[in-house]
Amino acid sequence: MPDKSFLFSRPPVWKSLEQSSQRQLPDNLQSWLNETGSLTKRLRGIHGNRFGVKVLFHRWKPAFIDECRLLGLPPCRYQLIREVMLHANGVPLVLARTILPEPTIEIAHRNLSHLGTRPLGEVIFAYPDLERRQRQFSRADSNIWSSGLQAEVGVDDAIWGRRTVYAIHRQPLLVAEFFLPAVLAPAVEHTP
Q1: What is the domain count for the chain?
Q2: What's the pLDDT score for residue 88?
Q3: What dihedral do alpha carbons 116, 83, 160, 43 form, nearest 10°?
Q4: Is 120 annotated as a binding residue?
Q5: Checking phi first, is residue 82 left (phi over 0); if not, alpha (psi -120 to 50) or beta?
Q6: Mean pLDDT for the stretch of residues 178-187
Q7: Confidence label for 130 from pLDDT (cuts 50, 70 and 90)
Q8: For residue 43, which phi and psi values (nearest 5 degrees)?
Q9: Which of 6, 9, 32, 36 could be bridged to 57 by S-S, CB 3.0 to 4.6 A?
Q10: DSSP category for residue 88
Q11: What GO molecular function terms would the record report (predicted)?
Q12: Is 33 marked as a binding-site residue?
């Protein structure tokens, strides 16, 4: 699996809202899981200039089988896979994995393939025709995370996440985000 992901030793199991036990989750976690706007904008509002992006994995590789199925892609085709950690002064907040098919990158004029440490949300939420097509949820147990990620972040408990199929000019991309304990801690809103 290391050739397909830095985050995972095996893919998470995803469920729709109706199938998940999400309704019993704490309000602060639900507010992140159900956020409809840009996570980047929300995190910048809380953490200001302390917010940053660390790129963990950025390669053209075949995506996981269930990701290909969700995007309607052949499983052997290479997609741009980008995994990052969103943090505040190095404190991990969110782990994210994005699957970017080549037609989506082309229609976005290659803006999506050269992000570096720029947050994906800054780019995709700037598209006026961005559409959210589907959202699923996962409770990822600590045993699915890779040893590399364990060394980097130290995930001890199950972590909730969501994945969303977006489309830009009708071309899909998949964004998965997992919310680490530090993002759920009460934070003082940053004032610019």
Answers
A1: 1
A2: 95
A3: 0
A4: yes
A5: beta
A6: 85
A7: very high
A8: -65, -40
A9: 6
A10: E
A11: chorismate lyase activity
A12: no
